[in-house]
Write a structure and sequence with these properties.
Number of strands: 8
Structural class: alpha+beta
Low-confidence stretches: 2-50
Distance between the termini: 48 Å
Radius of gyration: 22 Å
Mean pLDDT: 86
Shape: globular
Helix content: 40-55%
Length: about 325
C-alpha cells in the first residue's frame, strides 16, 4: 500500500559566514509574521462584520476535550467510511480501523495514483485482487471491499488498530496506522452516533450560483443518504415537507440503522449530514432537541424535539 511521504527538509548551512545573513533573515521573518497576523486579524474582523464564511473551511470532531480536524473533502469521505460501517451493523471499532487506514493510505482523499498500481481511498491494488481500477476508484466499492476483508479477521475488535489495519492491508509500513488512531476514534465516535453533538463544520455560505430548486436539493440529500447509509427519505404523511414544493427539507427515519437504539441512529445520521454538508449544501440539521446551523457552525437548542430516530436535513435552495 502507498505511503504518502512528506517532502524532504532541505539541509541547513551552519557555517559562520552565514550568521549575519541569518540574523537579518530573523528580523525579516519576525516583521513578516507580525504583518501576517495583522492581516489575518483584519480578514477575520471584516469577515465577522460582513457576515461572510470562515477564513478556513474545516470540520471538527471532539472527543475527551480534544478537537480533531479534517478538511470538508476528508470529512465527506469519513462520513462514507463510518456510515458504511453503521449501515452494515458493524461496531464503532470497525469505523475507527477503516478511518485510520484511509487516513494513512490516502489522507482520506480518493486519489487515482499511488505506489505501483495502488489507487483509491484505501490504496487497493488491482494486481492483488481488490478489483479493477474503475471499481476501486468508486469509494463505495472500495470501502465495502475493505470491510469485507476486515470482518473475516478473527478478533479484530480486540486488536490494536494498527494490527487490524495491517492484517487487511499488508503494508510495507505496518505500524504507520497507529498515528491516526486518536483522530479516527473521535470521528468514528461521532459518525456512529456514540458522541452526540460532537461533530461540526465551519463552511462558507452556499453561493447563489450553486443553489438549485428545492426538489433538486432534496434529491441530492436523498441520493447521498441512500449511497452512504442505505436510508430513504420518509414519504407521504411521514414527511410533511414533501407536500410543500418550496421546501428543501428531507425527513428521514434512521431507526433501521440501530433498531435497539433509535437515538444513536439519529445522531449517526445527523452528524453524517453535517460532515457531508459541503457537497449536499445542507444548512440545517435537526436531531432530537438540537439543530446544527451552518451559519453558526454549531449545534444549538431547537424549538421543538423530534421523535426518536427522526432527522431533518435542510439544504440551501433557490426561491
Amino acid at each position: 500500500m502507498a505511503l504518502l511521504a512528506d517532502p524532504p527538509v532541505p539541509p541547513v548551512d551552519d557555517s559562520s559566514r552565514g550568521r549575519p545573513v541569518r540574523r537579518a533573515l530573523k528580523y525579516v521573518v519576525a516583521i513578516g509574521s507580525v504583518c501576517a497576523v495583522a492581516t489575518i486579524g483584519v480578514v477575520v474582523g471584516l469577515n465577522r462584520v460582513t457576515g461572510g464564511g470562515p477564513v478556513t473551511e474545516r470540520c471538527t470532531a471532539e472527543l475527551d476535550g480534544s478537537d480533531w480536524y479534517l478538511s470538508p473533502a476528508q470529512a465527506d469521505n469519513a462520513a462514507l467510511v463510518a456510515g458504511t460501517s453503521v449501515a452494515r451493523g458493524l461496531p464503532a471499532r470497525a469505523a475507527t480501523i477503516g478511518l485510520a487506514t484511509a487516513l494513512q493510505e490516502s489522507k482520506l482523499i480518493n486519489i487515482d495514483y499511488g505506489d505501483r498500481d495502488s489507487v483509491g481511498l484505501f490504496q487497493q491494488r488491482p494486481s492483488q485482487g481488490w478489483g479493477t481500477v474503475q471499481e476501486i476508484l468508486d469509494p463505495v466499492y472500495s470501502t465495502n471491499a475493505f470491510y469485507d476483508v476486515l470482518v473475516e479477521v478473527e478478533g479484530y475488535e480486540d486488536m490494536a488498530v494498527t494490527d487490524a489495519a495491517q492484517t487487511v492491508q499488508r503494508s510495507a509500513f505496518p505500524d504507520a496506522y497507529a498515528q491516526h488512531e486518536m483522530r479516527s476514534r473521535a470521528w468514528a465516535s461521532a459518525l456512529t452516533g456514540n458522541s452526540p453533538g460532537a461533530l461540526s463544520c465551519e463552511l462558507a455560505p452556499v453561493a447563489d450560483g450553486d443553489q438549485t430548486a428545492p426538489a433538486a436539493a432534496r434529491d441530492v440529500v436523498a441520493g447521498r443518504l441512500g449511497r452512504d447509509l442505505g436510508l430513504a427519505p420518509a414519504t407521504g404523511a411521514a414527511d410533511p415537507n414533501r407536500q410543500d414544493p418550496a421546501s428543501s427539507t428531507v425527513t428521514v427515519d434512521a431507526t433501521p440503522l440501530t433498531p435497539d437504539d433509535p437515538e444513536r441512529g439519529a445522531w449517526a445520521t445527523g452528524q453524517w449530514a453535517v460532515a457531508t454538508a459541503q457537497v449536499t449544501q445542507a444548512v440545517e440539521v435537526h436531531v432530537a432537541d438540537r439543530v446544527w446551523l451552518r451559519e453558526e457552525a454549531a449545534w444549538v437548542e431547537a424549538e421543538t424535539r423530534l421523535d426518536p430516530g427522526e432527522v431533518r436535513i435542510t439544504a440551501d435552495a433557490s426561491e
